[in-house]
Amino acid sequence: MSIEVKVPVLPESVSDATIATWHKKAGEAVKRDENLVDLETDKVVLEVPSPVDGVLKEIKHEVGDTVNSEQIIAIIEEGAAAAPAKEEPKAEAKSAEKPAPAAAAKADAPKAEKTSGKGNDDLSPAGLRVATEEKIDASKVDGTGRDGRVTKEDLVNYSKDGGAAKAAPAAAKPTPGSRPEERVPMTRMRAKIAERLMQSKDSIAMLTSFNEVNLSAVSKMRKSLGEQFQKTHDVKLGFMSFFVKAAAEALKRRPIVNASVDGSDIVYHGFQDISIAVSTEKGLVTPVLRDVQDMGFADIEKAIGDYAKKARDGKLTLDDLQGGTFTITNGGTFGSLLSTPIVNPPQSAILGMHTIKERAIVENGQVIAAPMMYIALSYDHRVIDGKDAVLFLVDIKDQLENPQRMLLGL
């Protein structure tokens, strides 16, 4: 019985997808729930599993093709068995059993010379994905797996170390005075990120306000209660949960910052769904913490940890990225001292965190050293006035410098 393999139902915000990688070839056996193909959308890479056991009878769309929701991309013959591999003629097999000494030496020579891994056809699905995305020829990579196989980690390390530029022979090095260039097409996700950033720049009257926060109280609380918190909740108490909780409380008091523009209307959201910017190898993604107003510190830390792992493993789903009424981004993890983050439409504001630096400040007439952080709020001036933006930042500052306030809902 022939079974159709279709593109999953895509949400309204995603119009189509691109065939990124086929993990099976026509004629190969497939198992139920085994990943057949990766589809790249504007936001995530979707895996399409086989619905049944059988044989991949036909592939209707090749790598690079654009496909739409519920479009047929392959046919599987349910219950069929793959055709056996062709065997070499027995006569040739016998003649190869006892080669002449000279012939044996020649046959062994290529094996002795080959020190790199096998080609792309021998890669695991995860490895093939990395090789395809990074345009790596696996035969040029030294394999550390069993029997010299190239693993996903080998490919990732090869890419980080400069790839072919590092492995290239001396003769291939640029001549003195040359100005080498390489042109590669944007990935679909990178192109969409660029499009959304330009949309934000061109359609929003964006302005940024700044403040600074003394994180001494938060640091002391983490130091004194962090160990007990981890034992109780099985998760570390980080800085991010303090900022997320403080933002949720501030959004309750400044609902205009939590609003969005829809045509000529302003939509006020009675809930706080906060998007957390997460950096991945493919670009920045913003999974959403839903109903943060009802979450505790442990819930927030666990949810952020889960999203970070899913982002690293490429397992984020479209549902994880849909919605969001406000965004927090933390450039401080990369050492950023100050920045002006770009609003994520249709949201109206984004909070930027930065690196913590111990600086001299005046407190009660005394100069002391304190862990300080600059914070920034970029906002849509069509919706949010400067007064609201400044008071929102002041509210964030007050809660973080007096964390007991957010614990008591003050």
Structure write-up:
This protein has 410 residues and is an alpha+beta fold. Among the domains are: 2-78, Beta Barrel (OB fold (Dihydrolipoamide Acetyltransferase, E2P)); 206-407, Chloramphenicol Acetyltransferase (2-Layer Sandwich). It contains twelve helices and 19 strands. The strands form five sheets. Strands 9, 12, 15, 16, 17, 18 and 19 form a seven-stranded mixed beta sheet that branches. Strands 1-8-6-3 form a four-stranded antiparallel beta sheet, with no helix packed on it. A four-stranded antiparallel beta sheet has the order 5-4-2-7. Helix 3 (125-134) runs parallel beside helix 4 (152-160), helix 8 (239-253) crosses helix 9 (297-312) and helix 8 (239-253) crosses helix 11 (386-401). It is globular, with a radius of gyration of 27 Å. The termini are far apart. Residues 91-98, 100-117 and 164-171 have low confidence and may be disordered.
